[in-house]
From TrEMBL:
<protein>
    <submittedName>
        <fullName>TetR/AcrR family transcriptional regulator</fullName>
    </submittedName>
</protein>
<dbReference type="InterPro" id="IPR001647">
    <property type="entry name" value="HTH_TetR"/>
</dbReference>
<dbReference type="InterPro" id="IPR050109">
    <property type="entry name" value="HTH-type_TetR-like_transc_reg"/>
</dbReference>
<dbReference type="InterPro" id="IPR009057">
    <property type="entry name" value="Homeodomain-like_sf"/>
</dbReference>
<keyword id="KW-0238">DNA-binding</keyword>
<feature type="domain" description="HTH tetR-type">
    <location>
        <begin position="12"/>
        <end position="72"/>
    </location>
</feature>
<feature type="DNA-binding region" description="H-T-H motif">
    <location>
        <begin position="35"/>
        <end position="54"/>
    </location>
</feature>
<dbReference type="Pfam" id="PF00440">
    <property type="entry name" value="TetR_N"/>
</dbReference>
Length: 189
C-alpha cells in the first residue's frame, strides 16, 4: 500500500489563505476587537506562524485593507466594462457594480471596519486606508474621465450606499430610509 505524500503549502499560499481568513474575521469583529488567535484559527495555522508571515497585527490588517481596495478596484473596472458593453456611462456602471458588491456582507462589513479602524489612531492603518482610497479615486477618475464635481457626487453616493447597506435600510419601513434610498439607490443595495 502506497502512502500518499502530504503536500505542504508554500508560504505564499498560506499567506493568501491567511489574508482571506483575516479579511473575514476582521470584517466580523473589527481591528481592535479581533485577537490574532482568532485569525490564526480561521486560517488553520498557528499564531506563531501567523507572526512569521506578518510580524505585527497592524501589518496583517494593512494586507486586508489592501485586499479590500483591490476588490473595489476590480469592481470599478468590471463596472466600466459592463457600462461600455451596454451603452452606459462608466460612472453608472461602476455604481451598479459597487451596489452589487455591497450585497456581500463580508465586503460591506470589511469596508465599514476599515473606515472605523482608520479613525482609531493607528497611523499605519490610517495611511493604508488613505492610500487605498486615493488609488481608488485616481482609478475612477481615469476610467470615467469625470470632472471633480461628478467624482465628488459619485463617491458621496458610494458612501451613502455603504452606510445605508450597513444599516440594512432597504428593509426598513421608515420615511427617512425611503427618502435617502430613492429609486436608484434602493435598486443598488
Amino acid at each position: 500500500m502506497a502512502v500518499a505524500k502530504r503536500q505542504l503549502s508554500t508560504a505564499a499560499e498560506r499567506r493568501e489563505v491567511l489574508i482571506e481568513a483575516a479579511t473575514e474575521v476582521f470584517a466580523e469583529r473589527g481591528f481592535h476587537g479581533t485577537p490574532t488567535t482568532a485569525v490564526a484559527k480561521a486560517a488553520g495555522i498557528s499564531q506563531a506562524y501567523l507572526f512569521r508571515l506578518f510580524p505585527t497585527k497592524e501589518e496583517l490588517y494593512v494586507a486586508t485593507i489592501e485586499r479590500c481596495y483591490e476588490r473595489l478596484a476590480a469592481t470599478m473596472r468590471a463596472g466600466t466594462e459592463m457600462a461600455r458593453a451596454n451603452g452606459l456611462e462608466p460612472l453608472e456602471g461602476m455604481g451598479l457594480a459597487y451596489g452589487e458588491l455591497m450585497r456581500d456582507r463580508t465586503t460591506l462589513r470589511g469596508t465599514l471596519q476599515v473606515f472605523a479602524a482608520a479613525s482609531g489612531g493607528e497611523p499605519t492603518v490610517q495611511e493604508a486606508a488613505r492610500a487605498g482610497y486615493g488609488m481608488l479615486f485616481e482609478l475612477v477618475k481615469r476610467l470615467s474621465g469625470a470632472d471633480d464635481e461628478k467624482l465628488r457626487e459619485f463617491f458621496a453616493r458610494g458612501m451613502l450606499i455603504t452606510v445605508l447597506a450597513g444599516m440594512d435600510a432597504p428593509n426598513l419601513d421608515a420615511d427617512w430610509a425611503r427618502s435617502l434610498l430613492g429609486g436608484d439607490l434602493k435598486d443598488c443595495i
